[in-house]
Design brief:
single chain; alpha/beta; Elongation Factor Tu (Ef-tu), domain 3; Rossmann fold; 15 strands; binds adenosine-2'-5'-diphosphate
Amino acid sequence: MSQTEKTMREKTETAVAGEPVMPDVSVNLVRPNEPVIGRVVESELCTLGKRKSAAFIRHVAIDVSGTPLAGNFRAGQSFGVLPPGETDRGKPHKLRLYSISSPTRGEDGEGNVLATSCKRVVDEHWDDHKLFLGVCSNYLCDAQIGDEIRVTGPSGKRFVLPVDPSQHDYVFFATGTGIAPFRALSIDLLEGGYASKVTLVMGSPYRTDLIYDEQLRELDEKYENFRYVTAISRETQDDLDRRLYVQDRIKHDPLGTGPGSLSEQLASDRTLIYVCGLAGMEIGIFRGLFDALGRDAASAYVQVDDEIAGDPSSWNKRMINRQIRPTKRVFLEVY
Ligand code: A2P
């Protein structure tokens, strides 16, 4: 963004009610030039059995006890992994960041074990159509219990809970492995005993691709203030004879527009929206908000220039932070 655009944005951005106060968060306690060693303590597929798609997604948990990472990562942050070996050009492989799927207390309750949900990248080279295996995702997914992994972090200051989580309600939109930080944030909110309403909307191609589905259903059963809603894009839903993207759930909510529904929650000044997953999904969500709430109510989350407000179908990613400005009540992590 140029300086002029930045100034214009600052000028046109209007403060909205319910903006959160965000904490100062520690980052980069372990830097890439001096990684520390963690040890794999758990690795299991975190999708359901009888997969319909070719995706392999693993819950990989790493013990970082005795390192500066222990007790010093927060739900919503990421950590770095340095895969061994070199690129075709003889350079050491670069650091890759993975979202932490563990709550702030870690998998172990003491902040010593952090986990991520890692999807194997499997593709073809475009020029010679030979098999391409993503270096770091396959390294992590291949790792056996006891293997040592070079890790860094934590990273990310913004995709965390506000200073006082109880001041807000939360709508989380995830696609695919974008679920990782929401497992973490949801557990922090629910175990923290806050009365905040939390709705997690998770999108995947098939039911069998849902990640942490069983655990999230259990949380939905256990906590009255937590709702887990799925949007399946290549099958019809249990409650509806059509395919859905996460943003379609704003309109097609099993609870309609009644008590506890997304529409009701989104109309409240307490609500914050967090989005994590495929780049492009944020545009769909902004359209969904506009469509379901109308421009005025949606402006609590996204403010849109007059020239494009009449035609949401023309919106694209390049307009974000220019003609389409998310407010401070929206947190985006798309990749
Ligand atoms: P689809 O691929 O059927 O079009 P995964 O990462 O496991 O593939 O899941 C990503 C999910 O997000 C899929 O259900 C995918 O649908 C869906 N998706 C793809 N593009 C968008 C978008 N622009 N907005 C919201 N969801 C999307």
